[in-house]
């Protein structure tokens, strides 16, 4: 059962700043290379109905892949060293399609 | 610029109820057939970090397709007759990928 793991977030950095770009680039480098992570994407969230402006999305083939990601040192280290100090607000959602799709 | 329009929500109905199934089926029938709607999917939201338990996702080729959907009588009628009375809570997000993907 494939799982799409997503997080929508807002950084403490100024939009368009070097710090913003550096955070997104490091996240991609670190997280997308963790075994089991598929289809890692970075998107802008553009609806004015939310003040969260970025999204990371990735897919796992099954729950065991998701669990392995959560406990992987690359993920744990990224959360501690970058996510906690640089993210102002966020919301996680995990999706399982009823009918295929993303 | 393709836009992924999403809404995460919770119904007033009991999980597994006929009313829940009917809502999801009607939404698919009505919304997925509106011109410009692509890749309409229904997903379960399974993270315990949110109390919203369903997601609709659809894509539009550009902003004009999204605008046409919003003002289409099928969408307006569904919102008035089904969404407002049957949805307990929801959050919209719209995504534009930086690097392709869903």
What's the topology here?
The structure is a homodimer of 102-residue chains.
Chain A (H helix, E strand, L loop, with lengths): L2 E9 L6 H14 L6 E8 L8 E7 L2 H9 L1 H14 E11 L5
Antiparallel strand pairs in A: 1-3, 1-4, 2-3
Describe the structure.
- The structure is a homodimer of 102-residue chains.
- With 102 residues, chain A is an alpha+beta fold.
- The first copy, chain A, has one domain: 2-Layer Sandwich (Alpha-Beta Plaits), CATH 3.30.70.
- Chain A has three helices and four strands, in the order E-H-E-E-H-H-E.
- Chain A has helices at 18-31, 63-71, 73-86, and strands at residues 3-11, 38-45, 54-60, 87-97.
- Chain A has a four-stranded antiparallel β-sheet with strand order 2-3-1-4.
- In chain A, a hairpin with an 8-residue loop joins strand 2 (38-45) and strand 3.
- The radius of gyration of chain A is 14 Å and the shape is globular.
- Chain A starts with a strand and ends in a 5-residue tail after the last strand.
- The model of chain A has no long low-confidence stretch (mean pLDDT 95).
- The A-B interface holds A 3-4, 8, 24, 39, 41-47, 49-50, 52, 55, 57, 91-102 and B 3-4, 8, 24, 39, 41-47, 49-50, 52, 55, 57, 91-102.
